[in-house]
Design goal:
By secondary structure, this protein is α+β, with helices and mostly antiparallel strands. Helix content is 22%, strand content 32%. The protein is elongated, with a radius of gyration of 19 Å.
Length: 276
């Protein structure tokens, strides 16, 4: 593994290497971001970060190009995330690399990514013959908040906007397409649809939408934004169960989809949103 510190190649001019180079992967410790949120072990959630790679290609043993859509599941308990640009550079390094089979490539990806993040990573490669069955766009389930008539005043996270409705309980899925944050290194916008699935005292919907909008100028990685949303709702609204799932738009052929939940037995779905 590389011993680089900081943000790695993000925001830097780099050479694009097209032969297998696992040392391109740049781990970033999760704990720094969690320390800012006061999140310590045991974590209040179970979770996974689902990455989809739409531009994965390599050569077979005869030199013929192969393509697949890669699905990567990084457990939330891993000590590290992988910096996204380094991940893209690493995947591009397979472009002119010969692999004996798809299974060999999958094993190679699992080995390198597990070493980078510190726990086993699950890799699934979807070949073109499977795309019709596995890569369809799914309509969101639940109630969209985006038509609520509100006048937002906050564009940096404000947990005080989260309140509950006295005397009412609910079990519902609410979602919004209006989550936007910014990369903490480059300042580029990151866009997402975010789902709030909870059971407990009814959450005030106008306040929840205003709270999600308040991330608009927040500088943080995808995973940390979702963990902040989860923590704030858990602390301010005290639901009996809670799942927060964000489907971020892809950049450079990768989308990142953090899922955090109080439900240990639930598995995160990888359902593609329309803007992805």
């Amino acid at each position: 593994m590389s011993d680089r510190v900081g943000h790695g190649p993000l925001g830097e001019t780099v050479d694009y290497i097209d032969t297998y180079s696992p040392d391109l992967l740049h781990p970033i410790a999760r704990q720094e971001g969690r320390d800012r949120l006061g999140l310590v072990a045991p974590l209040p959630f179970h979770g996974v970060d689902i990455w989809n790679a739409w531009e994965l290609s390599w050569l077979n043993e005869r030199g013929k190009p192969e393509v697949a859509i890669g699905e990567f599941r990084f457990p939330a308990e891993s000590p590290n995330i992988v910096e996204s640009k380094s991940f893209k550079l690493y995947l591009n390094s397979f472009n002119q690399s010969r692999m004996a089979s798809t299974e060999v490539l999958q094993a190679c990806l699992e080995k390198d990514l597990s070493a980078a993040c510190g726990v086993p990573v699950v890799v699934t490669l979807h070949r073109p013959s499977e795309w019709t069955d596995t890569q369809g766009v799914t309509a969101p389930l639940g109630l969209c908040l985006d038509e609520l008539d509100i006048s937002p005043q906050d564009y940096e996270p404000n947990a005080d906007l989260l309140t509950t409705v006295a005397g009412e309980v609910a079990e519902e899925v609410l979602y919004s397409h209006l989550l936007r944050s910014r990369c903490p290194v480059t300042g580029q916008p990151d866009w997402a649809t975010v789902f709030i699935d909870y059971r407990g005292d009814r959450i005030n919907r106008e306040g929840l939408l205003a709270y999600l909008i308040s991330f608009r100028l927040q500088n943080d990685f995808h995973e940390q934004c979702v963990e902040q949303v989860f923590r704030d709702i858990l602390e301010r609204c005290a639901p009996k169960s809670l799942t927060v799932y964000a489907r971020y738009l892809r950049r450079g052929g990768l989308d990142i989809n953090p899922w955090r939940s109080t439900n240990a037995d639930e598995e995160a779905p990888n359902t593609r949103a329309a803007r992805q």
